[in-house]
Amino acid sequence: MSAPLIEIIGLSKAFPLRGGLFGGIRGDVKAVSDVSFSLAKGDVFGLAGESGSGKSTIARMIMGLTHPSAGAILLDGLDLTGLPLALARSKAVQMVFQNPGSSLNPRRSIGQSIAVPLEARKIARADVERGVARLLDMVQLPADFSTRYPHELSGGQKQRIAIARALAVEPQLIILDEPTSALDVSVQAKIIELLNELRRSLGLTYIFISHDLSLMRNFASRVGVLYLGRLVEEGPTRKLFEAPAHPYTRSLLAAVPVISAEEEAIKPKAPIVEGEIPSPMNQPPGCAFHTRCPLAFGLCDQQNPEAYWLDGDHFARCHLLAPDAASLGAKPIETLKRENAG
Ligand SMILES: Nc1ncnc2c1ncn2[C@@H]1O[C@H](COP(=O)(O)OP(=O)(O)OP(=O)(O)O)[C@@H](O)[C@H]1O
Ligand SMILES: [Mg+2]
Description:
This protein is of the alpha/beta class.
C-alpha cells in the first residue's frame, strides 16, 4: 500500500457535561473513543453507524472544527492536531453536509456563492468567472445556473453546488457527511455517481459518512463500523459485506436490502438488533454492544474486547473472535455460522 494520505491514530473526544446548580462538570459524553484508520489517496472510506455513534464528531475533528481530547490526525505525514484549528487545513480538507441548503446564502446568486472560495484566492475577476463556469461544468450543471438563487434549485442541484464549492479550493480530501440522506433515492444515486466520477478524474479521496451501509457497497473501498464512538469492525468493503465478523455489523447487514440473488446468498441471516442504543453518557461496561448482542457471554460485560485481525487488513472487536473464546464460555463461532446459514 502506498503511504496513507490521512492517518487517524487513537482519536478520542469526550464532551464535558455541565449541569447542576452551579454549572459544574458532572460527567462527560464519550462521543469518540480511540478510533484509528488510515486511507490512501483515491480511497473512499465509508464510516457507518447509528445516530449518535460519533460520525460527525470524527468529521469535525478532521476538519479542525472540534479539538480532539486525545489522538493524532496526520495528513500527508503532517500532524494537524497541533496546528491552529480550521484555517490550517481548510484548503486540504473540505466538507459537504447533509442539508445542502444550509450552506448557501439565500441572498447570493449561485455564481456569487461559488465565487467566494475563489475570491479568497485573490485571483483576477475574469479568472473567477471562468472558475465558476468550470466548477458548474464539473458538477454537471449548465453555466446559466450562476445567475439563479438557492430557492430556485432542487435538493440535488443544491448538493451539486455544495460539491462545486468544496472543489473550488482544490482539496485533497473531502468529508461527505450524509451528503445524500436528505435526497430522493434516484437523486441519491446520481450524486454518488457524480462523486465517483470526480474522484476518478481529480484523484480525490473521500470519507463518506452514512447510517446506510447499502450506499457503501458500490462506493466505498473500505468500511468502518462505529458503535458508541468505537470502531467495532473495519476492512475492505468486499470482506466486510461477504464475511462480516462483528455481531453488530452482521445485524446491520441483515437489514440492508439486496438487489441480486448473489447478494442474497451471502447476506448474513443474523437477527436484527433491537432496543435502543445506550447513552454515550452512560456507556455499558465491557463491550459497549453487549446489552444488545444476541451472542453475548460471560466476558462481554467485563472486558472491552481488543481488535482481532482476521486478515492483515480486516479487524473486529469482539470476544467471540478470541482464540480461546470457547473455553471462556462463548458459543463456538461455528454455531454462529450455522445459525446464520439456517
Ligand atoms: N458539542 C457537543 N457537546 C456535547 N455533546 C455532543 C456535542 N456534539 C456531539 N455530542 C454528542 O456526541 C455523540 C456523537 O454525536 P455525533 O453528532 O458525532 O453523532 P453522529 O453519528 O454524527 O449522529 P447522526 O447520525 O445523528 O448525525 C452524541 O451523543 C452527541 O449528543
Ligand atoms: Mg452526524
